[in-house]
Amino acid sequence: MLNIDTTPTEIIDYLNVSFHRLLLGHVDSGKTSLAKALSTTASTASFDKNPQSQERGITLDLGFSSLLVEMPNHLKDLDVRKNMQFTLVDCPGHASLIRTIIGGSQIIDMMILVIDVVKGMQTQTAECLVIGEITCQKMVVVLNKVDLLPEMKRAVLIEKMSKKMKLTLASSIFKDSPIVSIAASPGGLEDPTRGSSVGITELIEALRKFAFIPKRHVSSPFLLAVDHCFAIRGQGSVMTGTILQGAVNINDVIEIPQLQVTKKVKSMQMFRQPVVRAVQGDRVGICVTQFDPKTLERGMLCQPGHISKILSAIVSAKKIKYFKDSIKTKERFHISLGYETVMAKVTIFGVPRQTHDKKDSGRVEETDFNFDREYKYQDELISEVQADRSDETDVEAPQQQFALLEFDKPVLAVPKCLVIGSKLDKDIYTNTCRLAFHGTLLTGFDDKSYTTTILPRLKVYKEKCKTGIVERLTSENDVIVIKMFKKETNLQVFIGLKVFLTTGEEGIIDSSFGQSGKVKVHIPGGLKDSTVIYINNYSTRKKAKSNPLETAIKTEHVKVIMNMKKYVFDLHKKIAQT
Fold first, then answer.
1. Per-residue b/e over 337-368, b at no fewer than 16 CB within 10 Å?
2. Which of 458, 489, 513 is the last residue of a domain?
3. Which of 293, 329, 471, 540 is 20 to 30 Å from 59 at the Cα level?
4. Boundary (domain end) residue, out of 185, 209, 233
């Protein structure tokens, strides 16, 4: 039983490097068995302690355990600490639990992808691979259940599956990932005659060789992802989780933002060791008093005021290459931020790429969102493949893309947190990726009137083009234009806007002309002689109503074109030109 009641002399500093590895894979690939085989210390939430998990035989929640290893040789010169504490985060593999997986993926340094060597890559395995590509840079592949392969063909079949995995990973950031074959639980957990695990020593060595010293941001505001909460009689309530950033000390005041309450830290432990301080990357149990643990199953702890509820947000947006459907403006997606997943409507927009640097792949730095900049409205999110082929297609590749998210309900949001958009309502039994896009939360809005108080500051425009025909001249500097506007159009909005003629002249809409939607266009520099002749000939032929065939050949008209921008969030539907 976890004992938080300690005296100051018993409290020690934690001297091991914390390193988090996430176990991901398809349901029943053996992740929990592997966690058991690897672990030397179990936490209060590990190995399917959830009663439903035990009843159904599958993992339903995040499980945490740890393995203490000697500091790898290649890291000894980089850190004075002697050991590394590998925290193993066991994620559920069932497709319907993808929300939990996304939450767990945001607290890791490296991924362990567990593959059933008999079945190979499966649908949820592929989704886990996508999550890994978004959240971390390193991975170890484990081919589990090798004991189920015929002994005579085992080596050949393992080699065949290893080659398949290398081919699958060839175009990903994990192309150099080591592949280790094991049998975490030969014969199954329920087999009383089962033998000991196979290949675990080799796997631990591979994990040590592939480890690195994670970068920790200790000076950032404190933030902890809570995954378990329980009471200890006579001591208080314990909230366990992983510190995502910053640090926490005994007697610090921390906030539980979803409940809007603050508490003082009474004591702390890390894997049964009392500590006075914990930093980013550490898995810690924090004891507070006068708190009902039933009110908090999962959520966040933070420095007071660091997290707030928002109704809308602007995020950077990048389409996941495995998502086959289009991501369209006004479409609704499941949005995952931390441990929360809510529905939201998306509006896509981007930074236009200038013609002269169309090949430039540079991106705008993801810091605070710039409201002073202009952005172009997009009907859909452009993928990297579409952008690379923009020279061959009509697709205009933006320099960087963003999404405005409008949530169905308020959601707790951490500044600059990872955001993943998904279609979790898709059939889980179809062989399709449900993860659609990802990005970083750049700014959030908590004002209930954000559509009228904040969005008008967002300069997102649609490019519009209106075309008309010169009907006749009224002078060498003025022409009457038809078919540019409808009869009911409010022409006052367009007075003073620039136009150009297909013959090269530039003009300005001067006034309306009559009641049928005609306008008078003034040409400050005057019309060319050739244009005057052309327009007069057209007008004469039009009046003469000559032979239809002759008209089709000889009476091409002079077009008048007006390019403009319409700002989609402007309350007055303002129109502008460059």
1. bbbbbbebbbbbbbbbbeeeeeeeeeeeeeee
2. 458
3. 293
4. 209
